[in-house]
């Protein structure tokens, strides 16, 4: 398989580069860390740009890896084109491989959160030869395998607990444009709900975070492309059951989007997967979870042992 040559300036610690992922689609990427370190690709969730991965977490990972994060289509600085050229969620999984190809990376560790965890499962199933390891965070299994409860009884996959009513009500509200300041406050309310109720919520942290995201994107508009993209063809039941890639499933114990039974189920569906809990973590990445999450990821990649 051919690879594009690396940029000449990869000796820099941080490099930004655009990748042509498909006709008319360019993806913003950022590489951080030593150019000769083992690559680690971060894949964010729906409607979230690469900046959804917080700077302190990226820095902690980049101390051991060549960390790559990128903006999905219709987020951040990547192409916003869903209205003219609708795509499927499966196309977003193809973008993961396009990023690796575009940066000349043969194999990488992959870390996916939420929708990013689903995309990582699709890559795990379809392109295991491109992965060194996988870490799946705050997501659900792309499998119809029944869930085995601690008492040994089973539960159909589609009977696992759903998204909390509070989150569903929040997501059902229409998003109206009342200007950048109001949009930041709307996003803070969103984070307050999805972050769960176990850890103290820091308004100032998430306000500064969203200001960085908007500055990076260049506008405060909200895309709903990923919600509207076709979700067909995502199941990977049999291939996940045959998995041979070292895989870690992170269980966020206070996740209101994919409650803990989902992570236990996912660890059962992916052959050989290990499960680790991060107490108090919801469907967000506040400062309190950065250190334990970095430790879990680096333990899976083999960068930190013991």
Helix-strand layout with pairing:
Layout: E1 14-22, E2 25-32, E3 39-43, H1 55-62, E4 66-70, H2 89-102, E5 108-113, H3 115-126, E6 131-137, E7 147-148, E8 154-155, H4 165-172, H5 180-194, H6 203-217, H7 225-228, H8 237-241, E9 247-252, H9 260-269, E10 274-278, H10 287-301
Parallel strand pairs: 3-4, 3-5, 5-6, 6-9, 9-10
Antiparallel strand pairs: 1-2, 2-4, 7-8
Model description:
By secondary structure, the chain is an alpha/beta fold. The chain is 35% helix and 18% strand. The chain has 10 helices and 10 strands. It has helices at residues 55-62, 89-102, 115-126, 165-172, 180-194, 203-217, 225-228, 237-241, 260-269, 287-301; strands at 14-22, 25-32, 39-43, 66-70, 108-113, 131-137, 147-148, 154-155, 247-252, 274-278. Strands 1-2-4-3-5-6-9-10 form an 8-stranded mixed beta sheet, sandwiched between helices. Helix 1 (55-62) runs parallel beside helix 10 (287-301). It is globular.
Instruction: Report the count of strand segments.
Output: 10
The best one-word shape is globular
Looking at how many chains there are and whether they match, the oligomeric state comes to single chain
Radius of gyration: 18 Å
SSE order = EEEHEHEHEEEHHHHHEHEH
The N- to C-terminal Cα distance equals 36 Å
Q: What portion of residues belong to β-strands?
A: 15-25%
- Estimate percent helicity: 25-40%
Query: Which spans have pLDDT < 50 for at least 5 consecutive residues?
Result: 1-12
Please give the largest β-sheet: 8 strands, mixed
Question: What is the average of the pLDDT values?
Answer: 94
Going by helix content, strand content and strand pairing, the class is: alpha/beta
Work out the helix count: 10
Strand order of the largest sheet: 1-2-4-3-5-6-9-10
């Amino acid at each position: 398989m051919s690879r594009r040559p690396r940029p000449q300036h990869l000796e820099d610690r941080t490099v930004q580069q655009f990748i042509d992922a498909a006709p008319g689609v360019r993806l913003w990427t950022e590489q951080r860390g030593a150019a000769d370190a083992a690559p680690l690709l971060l894949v964010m969730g729906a409607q979230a740009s690469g900046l959804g991965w917080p700077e302190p977490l990226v820095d902690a990972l980049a101390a051991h890896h060549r960390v790559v994060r990128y903006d999905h289509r219709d987020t951040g600085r990547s192409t916003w084109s869903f209205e003219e050229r609708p795509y499927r969620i499966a196309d977003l999984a193809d973008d993961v491989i396009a990023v690796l190809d575009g940066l000349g990376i043969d194999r990488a560790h992959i870390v996916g959160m939420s929708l990013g965890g689903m995309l990582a499962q699709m890559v795990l199933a379809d392109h295991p030869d491109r992965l060194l390891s996988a870490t799946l965070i705050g997501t659900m299994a792309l499998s119809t395998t029944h869930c085995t409860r601690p008492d040994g009884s089973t539960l159909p996959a589609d009977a696992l607990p759903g998204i909390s009513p509070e989150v569903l009500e929040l997501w059902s509200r229409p998003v109206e444009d009342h200007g950048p300041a109001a949009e930041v406050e709307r996003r803070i309310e969103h984070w307050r709900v999805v972050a769960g109720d176990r850890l103290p919520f820091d308004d100032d942290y998430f306000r500064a975070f969203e200001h960085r995201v908007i500055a990076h994107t260049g506008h405060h508009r909200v895309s709903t492309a990923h919600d509207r993209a076709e979700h067909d063809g995502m199941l990977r039941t049999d291939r996940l059951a045959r998995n041979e890639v070292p895989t870690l499933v992170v269980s966020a114990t206070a996740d209101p989007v994919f409650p803990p039974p989902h992570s236990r189920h996912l660890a059962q569906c992916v052959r050989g997967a290990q499960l680790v809990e991060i107490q108090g973590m919801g469907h967000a990445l506040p400062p309190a979870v950065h250190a334990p999450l970095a430790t879990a990821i680096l333990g899976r990649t083999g960068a930190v042992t013991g």
